[in-house]
Amino acid sequence: MNKLFLITRPNYEITTRYLFAWSGIIVDTAKAKGINVVELRKDKANRKEFESRLTKLKPRLVIINGHGSDTCVTGHDGEVLVEAGQNEDILCSKIVYSLSCNSASCLGAESVKAGALCYIGYKTKFTFFHQNKITHPLDDNIAKLFLDPSNQVALSLLKGNRTQDANRKSKELSMKNIRKLLSSASSKESALYAKFLWSNMHNQVCYGDQEVCF
Amino acid sequence: MDKARFLKVYANLPINLRNEVILVLENYGPITWNVAFVEIDNNTQLGKIILEKLINLKIV
Amino acid sequence: MTGEDKKNNTIEKEIQELVKARLSVMPDNVFISIGANGETYTRDELIEHVNKKDDIGKLIIDIDMGFLRALKEGEIYEQIVFNN
């Protein structure tokens, strides 16, 4: 059976522009591995499309890029895609990675209760520094420090690693970047980036089945 | 004892953090880990003030 | 205001000044994206938020002080050395 995963890729302001560019790496990797991808790009990352594709196509892995809160994750133009107490059951039987602020603190736990296999996300705000390279986000070496570890979750899952290993490898990459930033070879502002990277890493959690694979 | 706590934290600090500001004092301005080390290690009056503030802020 | 309240207020003020001083190393050409609303901020904007102690300001303070306290507890050192 061919593997299938769904990814949302909104792109309507600077933050989502960066997430759009960096999540392109995940899509390219999946295609190179022969994995079927359902991409909800830009304005297709809306609730109607999201719910419809999840219901009809039943992807095992769902990657959500966008904004969020304790109880929801959003798509294009901030439209709510999944909200605790409303439709978290749509994530039933799925492995979910959500690059959105805060969603693991409530939505993550509720999704797992409603049957999601696993939910990897962040308990507080996910932050990243960048140089406003709107036209070429992938050339931004500062954003790379933050978004590479995030991508590592998805890339590890695509390789067939267990959810706990994907979570761990992502955190290891964060720590590798932190070590580099704190070394004497780094610039004086590097410590600032290290702090926020530490916060992202510290608040990244993996709820549900730790042994499941994509 | 407090001095020992400070020295332990300082000794384990990555080099790139030692020039970070850890306190802002009214008459002295920003104080980095390195400045704090010099004062505390030499048991100066300023060092005592710095140490007390660092403990109150739960940085040491 | 009790003595304890005054002391807490002083500590809060000291933390605010400390975080603002630590933010000053942020270069002019670097921005930070802070989730929920998609807003990005410059150094001066962050310092302003810390001054106001609004949601963004409190978040920055929490992250900065959280890191300092993790240093004190040896958490950063442990992660650096034992998860190498």
How many strands of chain B? 2
* Assembly state of the chains shown: heterotrimer
- Proportion of helical residues of chain C: 55-70%
Shape of chain C: flat
Biggest sheet layout of chain B: 2 strands, antiparallel
| Biggest chain-to-chain interface with counts | A-C, 38 and 28 residues
In DSSP terms (H or I, runs of 4 or more residues), the helix count of chain C works out at 4
Distance between the termini of chain C: 49 Å
| Residue-averaged pLDDT of chain C | 91
Helix share of residues of chain B? 40-55%
**Overall average residue pLDDT of chain B:** 94
The helix-strand sequence of chain C is HEEHHH
The helix tally of chain B amounts to 3
Strand order in the sheet with the most strands of chain C:
1-2
Which structural category do the helix and sheet elements of chain B fall into? alpha+beta
Structural class of chain C: mainly alpha
User: What portion of residues of chain B belong to β-strands?
Assistant: 15-25%
Shape type of chain B: globular
- Based on CA atoms alone, the radius of gyration of chain C comes out at 15 Å
Q: Could you characterize what this model shows?
A:
The complex is a heterotrimer of chains A (214), B (60) and C (84). Chain A is α/β, with parallel strands linked by helices and 214 residues long. Helices cover 41% and strands 20% of the residues of chain A. Chain A has a single domain, classed as Rossmann fold, CATH 3.40.50.1460. Chain A contains six helices and nine strands; from the N terminus they run βαβαββββαββαααβ. The model of chain A has no long low-confidence stretch (mean pLDDT 96). A two-stranded antiparallel sheet of chain B has the order 1-2. In chain B, helix 1 packs across helix 2 (33-41) and helix 2 packs across helix 3 (45-56). The termini of chain B are close together. The model of chain B has no long low-confidence stretch (mean pLDDT 94). With 84 residues, chain C is mainly alpha-helical. In chain C, helix 1 (3-23) runs antiparallel to helix 2 (43-52) and helix 2 packs across helix 3 (55-73). Chain C has one domain (3-82). Chain C has a two-stranded antiparallel ribbon. Chain C is flat, with a radius of gyration of 15 Å. The model of chain C has no long low-confidence stretch (mean pLDDT 91). Chain C has four helices and two strands. Chains in contact: A-B, A-C, B-C. Chain A binds chain C through residues 12-16, 18, 67-69, 78, 100-102, 124-132, 142, 172, 175, 178-179, 182, 188-189, 191-192, 194-196, 198-199, 202, and chain C through 22-23, 25-27, 29-40, 59, 63-64, 66-67, 70, 76, 79-80, 83-84.
